[in-house]
Amino acid sequence: MSRAMVSTTGVWSRREAPDDGDTGSEEPSKKSWGNADVVEPLAPQPRLPQPLGDLSATPIEALVAAACSVLPRSAIQLDKRSRSIRRFAEHLSAFPGDTWQQRWDASGWESSTTGLMSLNPAPAASWTMTSGFSWLVALRVLVPSLRVLRTTAVSDFFKIFIASQHGDDDLAALTAAVEAAPVSAKSRHQTLTDLSYMLAVQAIPASDITPGGLMHFGLALREVSTARDKNTRKLAGALVWQVLFDADKFPAGTPVTMRIATVGGRKSVAEMVDSYSVSNAGVRQLLIDYIAHRGALGMDYSTLSHLVRALTRNFWCVIERVNPDQTSLELDEATYEAWRAEIDTVQTTEGRRPRQSIWDLLVTVRALYLDIQSWAIEDPARWGPWVARCPIPPIASRGYSAGRRRQAERIADRTRTRQPLLELLVDHVVVVRDQMTALLAAARASAETEFEVNGVRYLRFTSPPNAATFPHAGPRARRGAALEPSPESGLLRIQRADGGPSIEIQSEETRAFWTWAIIEVLRLTGIRHEELLELSHLSIRQYRRSNGEVVALLVVTPSKTDRERVIPMSPELLHVVAQVIRRQTDKFGAIPLVRRWDPHERQHTEPMPFLFQRSSGQTTGVMSPTTVARMIRRACQEVAGRYPQFAGLTFTPHDFRRLFATDLVNNGLPIHIGAALLGHASLQTTRGYVAVFDEDVVRHYQLHLTRRRRLRPQDEYRDTTVSEWQEFEEHFDKRKVELGSCGRPYGTPCAHEHACVRCPMLHVEPQMIARLDYLESDLLGRRERAEAEGWRGEIEGIDVTLDHLRTKRERTIRLRPEGAVDLPMPTFRAFVR
């Protein structure tokens, strides 16, 4: 590689980026996604179908007959349907026009602030105006606006609309695919409702659905939504988009998901630079060329975007602001000092504070000057005109080492503060998960509206699905439903019988389970939050020893350092992973294949059976890093209500990684093994993670090196023999004791003189719980004898043993599976998101 292609500061990359062929020299495009344009919202041309014939000007009785020909019901229900249509049609007949649509337009209801539901009779009546309106829209007689349709239509509008579309095979296939999608019943209900609204207001058949039409409908829906539910309707039509994309109904080059079409995918270097509005055209092109060269060395997209932000927003845009006449990289002393004064602090909601990443920014800007000087030697025509003296003097980095030490001290203090609180957080999420699981099971099993759990009485009721779907519709509009809402599409809510707020128990149980699973996996593995979200069914491996024993392994995919690693799963970790798999397979039959959106890389992965996925909106997808952080933060806030030491304190996903590293090294694990488990490329990085107990780290590490050098001279580093491997396997056989298995490392003797009940390395088997009960009764008998004899030292020793025994029993009971845990290999489903 030529010197002109190498950065003088090196390149750090989270993972190897794909080659997109971007040289950064082309003119910036307005919007781009890979090789396809971002979808622009554009409603399709109206092409109103006539599923039951031309009813635009037909008499009232013909409308009634057409409506009664679909969705056959009892005579009483058909009579209510007929009355509703007849009353509404008679109301429209009072307005001028040759067709029903012209009469509707002349009625003024499109601009009315009262709404059509104001004409509904008393609840005891057998007809409603809103029901008659909904039927005429479903029969394709009327084409209302989205605002009127959303606030006026009955709650089960999608059922009567879909049933009325005779001959629309595309709509039937699309409906079947949505019904088969692995999402919640509420999401399917919402998707079909949105689909019916879109087809009705755009006046098209299902075959005319386009990506632009879906985007246009989504924007229109947000405009008529209230502030309360706008966030929940960000990607209305996302499931329809995914179904049609997977069925190859969209043109080539359409983005994979609606998210990509909404926010856009990866930007070129030119687009990223232009987002900061650089005024000087020459410097703009220089930055594009320089960053493109750096990116060609294998820099991933996230690192590339950080480089653009540092050099464009935090360097040159600030230079142009403090000195608008600056046209080259040659900065005078006044301009440099003004830039430093500007970037040394950052603006926050509380005011300006010192910038913590100032040294990284200075190194990046200094690299710009030194790289250009180096590259100009081999390509003077391109880089020579921009060679300039670096304005950052060497003395500016004098505080770099001190700043790093201050940062390490802050991190160490943070870890020191959170270590004793970890157990409280873990106990809390376990208790909440068990409580919500019991409440949900009791609420589902109860045939009455009142039930009892742990001595507390609760009230159970089901809120109708239209309460969330139609926030503007009043009770009369919702009462005008032509069909009964299905119970499974409603929200199961419970409330304490003695008062208090009601909760949607299914959502709360889901949140409690995933909060528990996230915290447990993070603290038991020490993986990064990105690696957590990338765990899939394919990450589970097993190693079978020669004696038949199976060891479970967790494969962590390459992440920050592009290094794949394997973590042996402890019984606790295996229990958590098994519960996650059981939850997914019980709900969907197999873990669905989903695409994970990486917000840093701005791209989707290939469909995989990710473990940490759940229904969000109208689709099932992998949780976002923001969701993970929010769940942990909420759990910390709940714990703060019981424990004052949690006030104002929260955990981040990376806190669990530091606590995991600290626990590993300070419990005797060699630091190089800890580095391998954590995926660190350098032992120094691992030392930084366990800086809370720096003396212990150094002492353990140096003792390990001394022992290894003494026992394993250089000439003995060779392949293991058969006898040595047998000795290694026999070590694990000797770890099996009466109550379970011992977790002491290979080559170490029993450090507790076989006092297994007291030993923290003992893993008790669930079937030995009865044996623990027997040992407890024996210890209690010995304690009574010791009290009678006055053996105070013996009493103290027995109490310590009892504490250890009870702790181990509680932990074993908590981790005991309810039945056989099956971890099958993943099966592939036909439906792909």
From TrEMBL:
<dbReference type="InterPro" id="IPR013762">
    <property type="entry name" value="Integrase-like_cat_sf"/>
</dbReference>
<dbReference type="InterPro" id="IPR002104">
    <property type="entry name" value="Integrase_catalytic"/>
</dbReference>
<keyword id="KW-0233">DNA recombination</keyword>
<dbReference type="Pfam" id="PF00589">
    <property type="entry name" value="Phage_integrase"/>
</dbReference>
<feature type="compositionally biased region" description="Polar residues">
    <location>
        <begin position="1"/>
        <end position="11"/>
    </location>
</feature>
<dbReference type="GO" id="GO:0003677">
    <property type="term" value="F:DNA binding"/>
</dbReference>
<dbReference type="InterPro" id="IPR050090">
    <property type="entry name" value="Tyrosine_recombinase_XerCD"/>
</dbReference>
<protein>
    <submittedName>
        <fullName>Site-specific integrase</fullName>
    </submittedName>
</protein>
<feature type="region of interest" description="Disordered">
    <location>
        <begin position="1"/>
        <end position="53"/>
    </location>
</feature>
<feature type="domain" description="Tyr recombinase">
    <location>
        <begin position="478"/>
        <end position="702"/>
    </location>
</feature>
<dbReference type="GO" id="GO:0015074">
    <property type="term" value="P:DNA integration"/>
</dbReference>
<dbReference type="GO" id="GO:0006310">
    <property type="term" value="P:DNA recombination"/>
</dbReference>
<dbReference type="InterPro" id="IPR011010">
    <property type="entry name" value="DNA_brk_join_enz"/>
</dbReference>
<keyword id="KW-0614">Plasmid</keyword>
